Amino acid sequence: MATEHTVKSFEQELRRLSGLITQMGGVAEAQVDAAVQAVTRRDVDLAGRVMQSDNRLDDYERQIEQETIRMLALRQPMGSDLREILAALKISADLERTGDYAANIAKRSIALAQLPAVRPASAIPRMGKLVQEMLKEVLDAYVDRDLDKAIAAWHRDEELDDLYTSLFREVLTYMMEDPRNITPCTHLLFIAKNLERAGDHATNIAETIHFLIVGQPLTTDRPKGDESSFAVVSPETPATP
């Protein structure tokens, strides 16, 4: 009876840990959504609320870290139980960083709201929506232990990279056309890069789910579409639409 009670209580602890990840993921999704809205609506008050709410994700990460350390020390898990705990630790770190990027976007939006609007900003909602979809898909995959759903989200990182590269070229062109665009376009570039990095963390979560379910790391090369490091735009070369 004593062994059965111990196993049951461990299962409850694992479910509670999984629930914390789900809650934290919901907060991260909401933070990204609000940050992008702050940019598109030029809403300084909303941006301030996003920045203040970043502490919630920090609190979740600390709580999950404490839980995992306690469970590792007391339960000494092996096999799938050990993967459950390590996956929670890794996913919470990715979600915390996603929240940091949302806060950075909100901070940039405050500066951007003080400047004239520029056309490339219209690409930001598309990037933001894609990041939110990727986050939702990997969190659903985590809850359902659905490998196919995780891999599908993993492949969408290339789509996000393509959007970022396109915006990067357009922003460079705008800056060359009129030096007055340099300041707002620079803020836009940082905002877009933060979204691209948030997508990378969603991809990390998909890889962690693969390890959680299969027990092996995902060894396939990660799909990448970010070509901004090689982009060269001159006044004679129009931006790629």
Strand content: under 5%
Tally of individual domains:
1
Order of helices and strands: HHHHHHH
Q: Give the helix proportion (percent range).
A: over 70%
Q: Could you name the CATH homologous superfamily?
A: Phosphate transport system protein phou homolog 2, domain 2
Inertia-based shape: elongated
How many strands appear in the DSSP assignment?
0
CATH hierarchy: architecture: Up-down Bundle
Mean pLDDT, all residues: 91
Structural class: mainly alpha
Distance between the termini: 67 Å
Query: What is Rg?
Result: 20 Å
Biggest beta sheet attributes: none
Low-confidence stretches: 1-5
* CATH fold field value: Methane Monooxygenase Hydroxylase, Chain G, domain 1
The CATH class label is Mainly Alpha
Q: What count of helical segments does DSSP give?
A: 7
What does this structure look like?
The protein has 241 residues and is mostly helical. The protein has a single domain, classed as Up-down Bundle (Methane Monooxygenase Hydroxylase, Chain G, domain 1), CATH 1.20.58. It is elongated, with a radius of gyration of 20 Å. The termini are far apart. It is built from seven helices and no strands. Helix 2 (44-75) runs antiparallel to helix 3 (79-113), helix 4 runs antiparallel to helix 5 and helix 6 (157-177) runs antiparallel to helix 7. The model is unreliable at 1-5 (pLDDT under 50). It has helices at 2-41, 44-75, 79-113, 124-144, 147-155, 157-177, 182-214.
